[in-house]
Amino acid sequence: MTLIRSGGLPLQAWEPLSGGVPDWDVLEKSEQLASERLLRAFDEALTNISEIPLRTIVYNARKAFFQRRKLPSPSVEASIQASANLAPLLDCIAVLKQARLEKQRAESIFEQNLEANYKVLQGLALDEAFHRALLFTSHDLLASLPSFAGKAYPFFDKKDRRTALSALQYLTRMVFKT
């Protein structure tokens, strides 16, 4: 005899919450590697430069980056670009800018997905089947669902975020547990 086990809700109930988010650890690691490469490129550029005004500009740019992770200003980049032997330094600056841009994109994607997921959970908070399931498990969560469902995402407080987390945990349990 074979038993087939299934969750209380179909898997389609989980699909709206499974939006793709870039891997934050990979983005952090790529930014860190780009920063390390840029520091090495600054050091190599300083050993190769003999012109005093350009060397001072590059040294100050390296110091600002090392101390505050501040990228060179456009005027400094223009000065560096004027020298032909500093092309690797410019390439490293471009790579770090791209890594930071990717990180900003990931943050905006995460924020959009978070808002969309909260809206899905607010819709779940109005679902009658979900209410009936909570009658057996959590009367406190059931009581807090109407205020959670009626509030807009930017105005969530700690209690609303906890309610959303609890609703997500119950939804997960309803979909994946038998």
Count of helical regions: 7
Class per helix and strand makeup: mainly alpha
| Helix and strand pattern | HHHHHHH
Strand content: under 5%
Distance between the termini: 18 Å
> Measured on Cα atoms, how large is the radius of gyration?
26 Å
What oligomeric state best describes the polypeptide chains here? single chain
Beta strand count: 0
> Could you report the average pLDDT, rounded to the nearest whole number?
89
Spans where pLDDT lies below 50 across 5 or more residues = none
**Helical residue percent band:** over 70%
Main sheet specs: none
What global shape is seen?
A: elongated
List keywords for this structure.
178 residues; mainly alpha; 7 helices; 73% helix
Can you tell me about this structure?
With 178 residues, the protein is mainly α. The chain is built from 7 helices and no strands. It has helices at residues 24-48, 52-68, 74-82, 87-125, 128-137, 139-149, 158-176. The chain is elongated and about 80 Å long.
